Amino acid sequence: MRFVSQTRNLSWAILALVLLSSTLFSLAASRKTKKNIQTKVFFSPKIELNPGSVSNKVFMDVDFPRGHISLKSFFAEVVNESGNSVPLHQTYLHHWIVVRYHQPKNVANNSEEGIIFKRNNGFCQENVFGQYYGLGSETRGTNTYIPDPYGIEVGNPEEIPKGYVEKWFINVHAIDTRCRR
């Protein structure tokens, strides 16, 4: 999250998500080619908070990786406009969640009609230990890196139903812990 000003009653917040992804999505591919791991930073849309207020926003069709890739890690942080972390005593990040979904191509972006939410299969059999990406303030700084040769595959065109497109949503639940005056 990004705070434009901590001295004004009205603050803007943005959740910064740092994503490590690889264009490799199988062990066989990693043996044949050099690793192509990329790090990208994504920001949630702005969130308006007043001292003592709570925000629990859902943002559909966010700017996030597209295509057939393997996710290696997620990190999320509340940051100010300079990219510096906002202290926990000013903004408590209750949780953030990033979820893939499939949406019919013929509906508006903000419509939830026909949406199919997709969990990641995790490391085990399909949907036995399915998971979403997301954490809260209690897990700040927790390493989420998935060791080589593994990663969580997303964007596989064979898994996207005909007539659908893969998209992402973010849920950010933040509490402004500055004193109300």
UniProtKB/TrEMBL annotation:
Pfam family, one: SURNod19
Keyword field: Signal
Organism superkingdom: Eukaryota
Signal peptide: 1-28
InterPro entries in alphabetical order: Stress_up-reg_Nod19
Listed PANTHER family: STRESS UP-REGULATED NOD 19 PROTEIN, STRESS UP-REGULATED NOD 19-RELATED
Name by which UniProt lists this protein: Putative stress up-regulated Nod 19
Organism: Medicago truncatula (Barrel medic)
